[in-house]
Design goal:
The protein has seven helices and no strands. With about 180 residues, the chain is mainly alpha-helical. This is Tripartite tricarboxylate transporter TctB family protein.
């Protein structure tokens, strides 16, 4: 079958309008709306739990809802964001490919760091892996050393506070 015959076959496929629609949909806002809806549902339905059981769902859902409100404030209302003009001097296509490759590399590194954090947390405990995870992630993103050290200490404090508040054993692994 030639390429011309194959393209005519694809044009007549009953799935083609759906595929074209899905190509045109930006998944970011859809996923954002889904997260907000799930967090809202979780926050509301947690009211039916006992006081000790509703703490975690309310904290988790509240965090997502506050982060969502902040994201909306920054992106939609342009609060606190100063955008710079991007100028392409030469080689616009190769720079776009480099950006895509850098984005893919960043996504892969983050995926490996998260997988290591979860698996290592299962082996030795999440609390012990929080500082190395934050430190490595910030170093990979080329943050200054003072900011990396400060944020590592802050996130270690957050992990300790979470462990204390929720009365969880994050010091030991799953074995």
């Amino acid at each position: 079958m030639s390429n011309e015959e194959r393209s005519k076959t694809l044009e007549r496929s009953p799935v083609t309008p759906l595929a074209e629609f899905l190509r045109g949909v930006d998944g970011g806002p859809v996923f954002f709306g889904f997260l907000i809806a799930v967090a809202g549902y979780m926050f509301v339905t947690a009211a039916g739990f006992t006081a000790s059981a509703r703490l975690f769902p309310r904290l988790a859902a509240g965090t997502v809802l506050v982060a969502g409100a902040l994201r909306l404030a920054v992106t939609r209302l342009n609060i606190g964001v100063e955008r710079s003009e991007s100028v392409v001097l030469s080689g616009g296509q190769s720079e776009a490919n480099d950006d895509e490759e850098a984005s893919l590399e960043s996504m892969l590194v983050l995926g490996f760091l998260i997988a290591g954090y979860v698996l290592g947390g299962f082996l030795v405990g999440l609390f012990w892996l929080t500082p190395p995870f934050v430190f490595l992630y910030l170093l990979y993103n080329r943050q200054p050393l003072w900011r990396t050290a400060l944020l590592t200490a802050v996130m270690t404090g957050v992990a300790y506070g979470f462990m204390t508040l929720m009365n969880l054993d994050l010091l030991t692994g799953g074995f």
